[in-house]
Amino acid sequence: MSSKMQRRMALRRKLHILKTLTNSKSVKKSSIIMDAFLYIYKLKLQVEAIQREYQYLINHIQEVKVEKDGTRYVVRVTCKKGQDLLESIFEAFEEMNLNVLEARVTCKHFFGMEVIAEAKGQDIDSRILTETILNMIQRPSGNGAFN
Description:
Elements: H1 3-22, H2 29-60, E1 62-69, E2 72-79, H3 85-95, E3 98-106, E4 111-119, H4 126-138
Antiparallel strand pairs: 1-2, 2-4, 3-4
């Protein structure tokens, strides 16, 4: 086979693949390419929409869960990253006379924290602890390393 024929066959195969991927009903080469272009453009718009939604979720997620287990409290915090957030939450524990026994923290895409704490003196209402931590994470923060 001549090289010209091989190139033509390769082009036909590629056009067939494009036609299949884009579900194009066109027969003309230019129409198949235009359908592929539109298909890629729609995919780009979908990716941008997903990125906007992801960014919105990262910026607006705020969740505090407190579970009481005897004298211990299991506290889970998920929120947007912020400067001095970890320090502020630990200060809240200290102000409420809670001794932190164990803590796990992540801050890859958002701030996540799980703490096991124990009351130093009298028991604390879980709702008050939840509200205190929510107030700490809702406080405006400066531009720090975690923003």
